[in-house]
């Protein structure tokens, strides 16, 4: 009996140790950003100091530089505006397309689905020149609308493929029953299928917002005015000057942007995982 208790205690301790190590590994980047944000410059550059603690009193000078010496708030608003617009466009295109492909039987449906997903795998550098010509012809240089136009080109294919797999998990019998009750096919789709696919739609929203916040190449190329920058371009452009890195301000900018996304992931982690794994197992 004693040996059994020791084995249970050892197993629980091992599980707790692995969980604690995993949590520490995941939380360490946020701790590092947080402590660096409030460290003074001398504390950061002195190699004799312990980098994991405050060797000098915390300071708000890094945040002052971030908010008052740069246009960080404007960049966050620009990123939010582009993100909301791209999310709406992606949902309007990907959700109906995914539903249509999910209900399209035969090999044509499979071939179209694979073709749409393969377009997502095309490297952005290959599309850079044709997109530049399109943006120039439309007169959208140095405009956030250029990003709103370009970003759906790689969010819509992946999200269409994602939603197609999710809609396939919704039984056709539910739609047929709703149509027998008097709903049209569009009504059944809107009132029955879409609510059942909320996990997939949430996955599309999170994926699209994350991609917009981290995309750098097109945002750097199509936008030239600092007031039109997104966070991914404005922060390194103004806080990295030659060989001088404003580490405290850089970490503060990254922390402010990453915390809401991390909270969003954790609040809806179950639905987010379900959106990516639907159809993997029966």
Write out the strand line-up for the largest beta sheet, numbering strands in chain order.
1-2
Q: In DSSP terms, counting alpha (H) and pi (I) runs of 4 or more, how many helices?
A: 15
State the CATH architecture of the largest domain: Orthogonal Bundle
Q: What Rg is obtained from the alpha carbons, in whole angstroms?
A: 24 Å
Straight-line N-to-C gap: 40 Å
Counting structural domains, the number is 2
General form = flat
Compressed to H and E, one letter per element, the order equals HHHHHHHHHHHHHEEHH
Average pLDDT: 83
Count of individual beta strands: 2
CATH class of the largest domain: Mainly Alpha
Strand content: under 5%
Main sheet: strands, sense, barrel: 2 strands, antiparallel
> Which structural class do you get from the secondary structure elements?
mainly alpha
CATH fold name of the largest domain: MetI-like fold
CATH superfamily of the largest domain: MetI-like
The percent of residues in helical segments reads over 70%
Unreliable segments (pLDDT under 50, ≥5 consecutive)? none
Subcellular location: Cell membrane
InterPro entries: BP-dep_ABC_trans_perm, MetI-like, MetI-like_sf
Pfam families: BPD_transp_1
Domain ABC transmembrane type-1: 76-268
Write a brief structural summary.
This protein is mainly alpha-helical. The chain has helices spanning 2-37, 41-45, 61-68, 72-103, 107-120, 124-138, 144-150, 152-168, 172-180, 185-196, 198-214, 217-222, 231-239, 247-267, 269-277, and strands at residues 240-241, 244-245. Strands 1-2 form a two-stranded antiparallel ribbon.
């Amino acid at each position: 009996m004693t040996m059994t208790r020791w084995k249970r205690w050892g197993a629980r301790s091992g599980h707790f140790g692995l969980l604690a190590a995993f949590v520490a590994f995941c939380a360490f980047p946020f701790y590092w950003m947080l402590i660096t944000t409030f460290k003074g410059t001398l504390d950061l550059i002195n190699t004799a100091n312990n980098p994991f603690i405050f060797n000098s009193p915390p300071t708000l000078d890094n945040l002052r530089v971030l908010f008052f010496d740069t246009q960080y708030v404007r960049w966050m608003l620009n990123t939010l505006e582009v993100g909301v617009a791209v999310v709406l466009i992606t949902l309007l295109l990907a959700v109906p397309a995914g539903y249509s492909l999910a209900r399209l039987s035969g090999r044509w449906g499979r071939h179209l689905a694979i073709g749409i997903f393969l377009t997502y795998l095309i490297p952005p550098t290959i599309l850079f020149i044709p997109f530049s010509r399109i943006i120039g012809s439309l007169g959208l240089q140095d405009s956030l609308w250029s990003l709103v136009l370009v970003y759906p080109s790689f969010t819509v294919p992946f999200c269409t493929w994602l939603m197609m797999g999710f809609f396939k998990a919704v039984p056709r019998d539910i739609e047929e029953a709703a149509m027998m009750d008097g709903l049209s096919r569009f009504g059944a789709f809107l009132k029955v299928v879409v609510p059942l696919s909320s996990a997939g739609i949430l996955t599309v929203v999170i994926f699209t917002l994350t991609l917009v916040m981290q995309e750098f190449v097109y945002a750097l190329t199509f936008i030239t005015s600092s007031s039109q920058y997104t966070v991914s371009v404005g922060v390194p452009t103004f806080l990295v000057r030659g060989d001088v890195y404003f580490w405290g301000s850089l970490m503060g900018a990254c922390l402010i942007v990453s915390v809401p996304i991390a909270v969003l992931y954790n609040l809806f982690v179950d639905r987010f995982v379900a959106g990516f794994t639907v159809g993997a197992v029966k």
